[in-house]
Design brief:
Blueprint: E1 4-5, E2 37-38, H1 57-67, E3 73-76, H2 83-90, E4 94-99, H3 102-112, H4 117-138, E5 140-143, E6 146-160, E7 167-169, E8 180-182, E9 189-191, E10 196-208, E11 215-218, H5 251-255, H6 267-280, H7 286-297, E12 327-331, H8 333-350, E13 358-362, E14 375-380, H9 390-393, H10 395-401, H11 423-440, E15 441-451, H12 456-468, E16 472-480, H13 486-494, E17 502-508, H14 521-531, H15 540-553, H16 561-569
Parallel strand pairs: 2-16, 3-4, 3-14, 4-13, 14-15
Antiparallel strand pairs: 1-2, 5-6, 6-7, 6-10, 6-12, 8-9, 10-11, 15-17, 16-17
Helix pairs in contact: 1-2, 4-6, 4-7, 4-8, 6-7, 7-8, 11-12, 14-15, 15-16
Length: 570
């Protein structure tokens, strides 16, 4: 993982210096003259446990080095996965992490609290000794008369033609794309979304054989399925309701029979996870028990019906959603867990966590239990308005933890479900949170806020919330996380205008005189296009963050992506 901080160009300078955290180099080939920061989201540490809008620790470390000294304390009131805490320990600082979400606190605590690797490995062995054989039997099958193990099955929706009533296995239509499906019975073409889901069918098996290194791919046979599973005899598993009161609920969930969190899993995988979870909870050492839970929440989404099929190779679930694809995998839970526990052992052996360096708190960012002036610097990644409904996106993790987010206090914009919030509500919650940041910062302290939103109202709500809270704008740059998110990929594919980089705003605690604007939208767009002149065709999404960073550095108000698109067109 490498990070590069570059001086800004003459038209819109950024004050960020060319800082590389200890032991790091500048990013090879990254030389844009726009004061930007680049980071890759593919490091082993980053991938131990997923989280929404996760900023790589290596990127955060550069900001921390730029704004603090060794031994200082860094705050993140919306800590998410705890990467700010990891970055603080990487650079010899301390950290205070806070989040409303029990899933976030769970993930952040395990990332930033040491655990003795040998004790964790021994606990994994005890769990396997307890329930491993029973789980292995769930995935046992035969191939060519010999024993084999199911590594995964591919499942397909069965949908009914609205014209003739023919039942269509969508797997048979995968090569022609599934947005519009042509009925094999009557030839009628219709959107997949208009066709009723009438069932699902396992269509392909990926197997491994004892002692062999090659995988076998074949059609599913009866031995691959477990229709006789009795869930009544299982240990505890989550039965949290999932219905139309949740903003991420869709009719498709109901069509697939999903009304609780348990329904996101096949019966086989639910049994495997239930056995592992309850065996892990039997561990007497609290730290080891929490680490085992961490290893299981880390596979909770991959083990679900949310892991979408890919023609080339399995990729992952769609982060920040509860989407269930029409073609999906049923993974061997034991194989997933064994691989994940090995990754967690590497995390614990890396020394990324330092005893006593990071304090993790669960609570609202509007009421931080910290003394005035006790924090040297704040780096945070607050909720992105309506971009993600975090409490829903974290539902599977939180259901297994049996502890849900207080949605009434969540700082988001949501127009559906039973806890709707307007942009004004969102701005008020952020203003109260930013006021708390200002209160706990020392007089010379600064706060860096990572943000992304494509609409002008949300942008204005965040920026004005910080100013109303008494913070003074100091600087802005952009952050590229390398790999695009699901929403970015979907937007690029379908021609939607989606921001491709985050904007990083830094504020001072002490008030400053507001200068007159020195740049307008047209000038900012021209400068952003010039900076990317070697990129070929340039979209509004590609330069949106850069344009807003330039506007903010030039004392102008941020704009929405539609305004950038229109200015680019002219």
């Amino acid at each position: 993982m490498f990070v590069c901080y570059l001086a800004g160009d003459a038209a819109a300078p950024s004050s960020f210096s060319a800082v590389a955290p200890p032991g790091q180099l500048e990013l090879d080939g990254f030389g844009r003259p726009d004061g930007a920061v680049a980071a890759r989201r593919s490091t082993p540490l980053y991938g131990v446990h997923a989280y929404h809008t996760k900023v790589p620790a290596e990127a955060i470390a550069g900001f921390i080095v730029d704004h603090t000294s060794p031994g200082d304390t860094v705050l993140d009131p919306f800590c998410g996965s705890g990467m700010t805490g990891v970055a603080a320990t990487m650079t010899g600082r301390k950290a205070v992490l806070n989040d409303l979400s029990p899933a976030a606190v769970h993930i952040a605590t395990n990332y930033t609290t040491p655990c003795e690797p040998g004790a964790f490995e021994m606990a994994v062995a005890r769990v396997l000794e307890n329930v491993g054989d029973e789980i292995e039997a769930l995935y046992a099958t035969r191939h060519s008369g010999r024993p084999a193990t199911i590594e995964y099955l591919v499942w397909s929706d069965v949908r009914r033609c609205t014209e003739c009533g023919e039942d269509l296995l969508l797997w048979d239509h995968r090569t022609s794309g599934l947005r519009t499906v042509c009925c094999s019975g009557c030839g009628y073409e219709a959107s997949k979304a208009t066709m009723l889901v009438v069932g699902e069918e396992a269509v392909e098996a990926n197997l491994s054989a004892p002692g062999g290194h090659r995988r076998v791919v074949r059609s599913v046979v009866p031995d691959d399925l477990r229709p006789d599973l009795n869930l009544d005899s299982l240990p505890w598993y989550p039965s949290t309701r999932f219905d139309s009161t949740r903003p991420m609920w869709r009719r498709g969930h109901s069509d697939l029979g999903i009304s609780t969190v348990a329904d996101f899993y096949s019966a086989r995988n639910l049994k495997a996870l239930s056995l592992l979870w309850n065996a892990a909870n039997g561990e007497p050492d609290e730290r080891v028990r929490l680490a085992l839970r961490f290893s299981l929440t880390a596979i909770a989404n991959r083990a679900s019906r949310r892991y979408q099929w890919n023609a080339k190779r399995p990729t992952n679930v769609l982060g920040g959603t509860l989407y269930v694809s029409s073609l999906r995998y049923e993974w061997n839970v034991l194989s997933l867990w064994r691989r994940k526990t090995r990754a967690i052992v590497r995390l614990f052996r890396s020394g990324a966590a330092v005893e006593g360096a990071v304090q993790t708190i669960r609570g609202s960012a509007t009421r931080l239990p910290l003394p005035d002036g006790s924090i040297d610097y704040c780096f945070t990644d607050p909720p992105f308005g309506s971009h993600i409904v975090y409490s829903d996106a974290s539902l599977l993790w939180e259901a297994w933890l049996d502890d849900l987010t207080d949605r009434a206090s969540e700082a988001i914009v949501v127009r559906g479900g039973d806890h709707s919030k307007s942009v004004s509500d969102y701005g008020d919650l952020l203003q109260a949170s930013f006021a708390e940041i200002r209160r706990v910062l020392r007089p010379e302290g600064k706060a860096t806020i990572v943000f992304q939103a494509s609409d002008p109202d949300t942008w204005s709500a965040v920026y004005k919330a910080a100013l109303r809270a008494g913070l003074s704008f100091s600087d802005a740059t952009t952050l590229s996380k390398g790999q695009p998110s699901f929403k970015q990929v979907k937007g690029q594919r379908e021609g939607e205008m989606v921001a491709e980089t985050d904007v990083v705003l830094t504020f001072s605690r002490e008030p400053a005189r507001s200068p007159a604007p020195t740049i307008n939208l047209a000038e900012a767009v021209r400068a952003a296009v010039t900076a990317r002149s070697d990129a070929g065709e340039i979209s509004a999404g590609a330069i949106f963050g850069d344009v807003n960073a330039r506007l903010l550095r030039g004392a102008a108000e941020p704009v929405g992506i539609r305004e950038v698109h229109d200015a680019l067109a002219t």
